[in-house]
Structure to design on (50 residues):
């Protein structure tokens, strides 16, 4: 019985997760932290953002 219940819980959790899909708000927050070294070279050191 415990195995069936555990399998059911795992199956429900796997059904809820969509890996790789983000909301537009999440993508905007992710892109906000990126530094483009070509556009803002003062924020980079030898082509690496710091």
């Amino acid at each position: 019985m415990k195995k069936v219940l555990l399998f059911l819980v795992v199956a429900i959790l796997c059904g809820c997760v969509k890996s790789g899909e983000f909301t537009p708000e999440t993508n905007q927050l992710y892109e906000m932290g990126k530094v483009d070294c070509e556009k803002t070279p003062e924020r980079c050191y030898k082509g690496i953002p710091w």
User: Anything to note?
Assistant: Helices lie at 2-16, 24-32. The mean pLDDT is 80.
